[in-house]
Amino acid sequence: MKYEMFDAKKIIGEVTLQEADANPNIVVVSTDSAPRTGMTGFITKYPNRYYELGIMEQGAVGVSSGLATAGKVPIFCAPAPFVTARPFEMFKIDIGYMQQNVKAIGRNCGFNYSDLGPTHYGLEDMALARLIPGVTVLAPIDASQLRGAMRAMLRHQGPVYLRIGTAPIPKIFEEEEFTIGKGQIVREGKDVAIITTGEIAVNVFEAAETLAAQGINAMVVAMPTVLPLDEAIIKKAAEATGRIVVVEEHYEVGGLGTAVCETCAKLAPVPVKRLGVPHVYLSAGPYIDLVKYCKLDPAGIVETVKEFTTQEK
Amino acid sequence: MEANTLNELKKFALDIRIETLNMISKHGFGHMGGSLSVADAIAVLYGNQMKYDPQNPKWDGRDYLVLSKGHCGPALYSALAIKGFFPREELLTINKLGTRLPSHVDKNLTPGIDMTAGSLGQGVSCALGMALGLKLQNKPNMVYAIIGDGEAQEGQVWETMLIAPNKGVKNFIVMLDNNKQQLDEFTNHISSLGDVRQKAEDFGWYALTVNGHDPNAIDEAIEKCKAADKPGFINMETVKGKGWQAKECVLNNHALRGPAFAGVDEVIENFRKELAAMQ
């Protein structure tokens, strides 16, 4: 394997503990969900700052909001659909509207919970979170960014939603410094821009190398912040290449692909191909099979980009 | 309770009813029924129980109220104005463009409001979070949440009712404005709460039932809850539209609009006479 691999949940736990040592206001809210989000170290060290509420995600969002009113910095962590879809209205009002300093972590996003099937997939979490004004939406791409994003999230004043998968996460970048709201050009290219977010990005990087070997030079843009969106970098990519492919482990509807289309329509109209999860109910199945089915594996990305770049504009 | 204190609370409650009816009738729309049923509880909280500073609404030492039945904002706004959080004249801006006083209570807009509410069922959870956060800091501040009996049909209320006693919060009191009605119907005709005091006790709360229009009884119940080693639950037996006799316990008294306010001026005038007689 090309990259060293890490356990995303372990990183979340480690950074939480480091930040909690420095900030006594950090607390953790669980709905039968925190130990499996890497929080065991925090729970052991700070049992009085840990709230296991049982399986009540709607109420947990409210409790988190109230804790923020009392000056705490609550981290509420659970599988992505139970942090976003189930308590959506509570998220909207109790966290978003009131701009409460709550940090929500949705794990097993995308179809990372492939063994558990559609009830546990998080394929619309970014769409829901980015509908709420003032919520920062983060989807780090690699282990270094995840560390940086965790730190940035916990030091940021205001509501944040951070999504992660559960598959081992590669360490691609050395740099851990993370600036909320900034995308980065990872690879220069002139034929097409591939904009991507979250851990599926590693497949994009591999695909870009394959494409280069076949004569297609793709610019690759990493977007670990989905809201607020770095519109300037999208405009730059559109103007430099004239075509954009967006790759994400999320429904093609409502996520980064939609956000990029909105930005291009406003600032730099170019053709955009969204390569995400088709807007249907997916089967349960092995994760890698689902990735291939959605053409989110390197070969699928290469095939999609080649097809798109040979189309007439 | 001393007679003078009781008299002051009754006057305060009357004043809340006057200002509430005045503001919503002049605007031409407002949640009359629940605002009048909860007026006495709010008078006790802001007249004899809660610690607050109208000049510094975010004072660290304040007690917190989450009016989870957020549509009864007019009653709370009246109390806040009477106590000096903002001028009484501002009450007449309710629901005007750019107002700080929307129908439903709003933390972002109104001095003295600590939690936005309006979508029913969410306030008890938020209030529990506040109580837990204050407890963690060993602060003495109390947290109160007022919910409606119709609101208690929301499942989220009961999630929190179940967990709160398990978390050892003693600085937390939930007050149920049990006015027996909701928007469409009498609550019992839709989904009876049954013996809600017993239910709360079974969930692990220190639970009492009181006459929700008797300031002395409400005040005593709060004192008992504060002394208990559990979170407190007060089932306040109330009358929707309390004080406007023609509107008490009748259908369609939840919110009034336009012509439905016919007769309100006479009711307000009678309240004013009653208040003057108590001075």
Explained architecture:
Chain A has 313 residues and is of the alpha/beta class. Chain A folds into two domains: 4-171, Thiamin diphosphate (ThDP)-binding fold, Pyr/PP domains (Rossmann fold, 3-Layer(aba) Sandwich), CATH 3.40.50.970; 184-306, Rossmann fold. Chain A contains twelve helices and 14 strands. Chain A has helices at residues 8-22, 40-45, 57-69, 80-83, 88-97, 125-130, 143-155, 201-213, 231-241, 256-267, 287-293, 298-309, and strands at residues 4-6, 26-30, 50-52, 73-79, 103-107, 136-138, 160-163, 169-171, 184-187, 192-196, 218-222, 225-227, 244-251, 272-277. The model of chain A has no long low-confidence stretch (mean pLDDT 96). In chain B, strands 2-3-4-6-5 form a five-stranded parallel beta sheet, with helices on both faces. Chain B has a two-stranded antiparallel ribbon with strand order 1-7. Chain B has one domain (3-278): Rossmann fold. In chain B, α9 (215-227) links the parallel β5 and β6. With 279 residues, chain B is an alpha/beta fold. Chain A binds chain B through residues 27, 48-49, 51, 53-54, 56, 58-72, 74, 89-90, 93-94, 97-99, and chain B through 64, 66, 107-108, 114-116, 118-119, 122-134, 136-137, 143, 155-156, 159-160, 162-163, 167.
When the domains of chain A are counted, the total is 2
Identify the CATH homologous superfamily of the largest domain in chain A: Thiamin diphosphate (ThDP)-binding fold, Pyr/PP domains
* CATH architectural designation of chain B: 3-Layer(aba) Sandwich
Describe the largest sheet of chain A: 7 strands, mixed
| Distance linking N and C termini of chain A | 37 Å
CATH class of the largest domain in chain A: Alpha Beta
Arithmetic mean of pLDDT of chain B: 97
SS class of chain A: alpha/beta
Mean pLDDT of chain A: 96
Question: What's the β-strand tally of chain A?
Answer: 14
Q: What ranges of chain B have pLDDT less than 50 throughout 5 or more consecutive residues?
A: none
Greatest interface: A-B, 30 and 32 residues
Shape of chain A: globular
Report the CATH topology name of chain B: Rossmann fold
Structural class of chain B: alpha/beta
Q: Provide the spatial order of strands within the biggest beta sheet of chain B.
A: 2-3-4-6-5
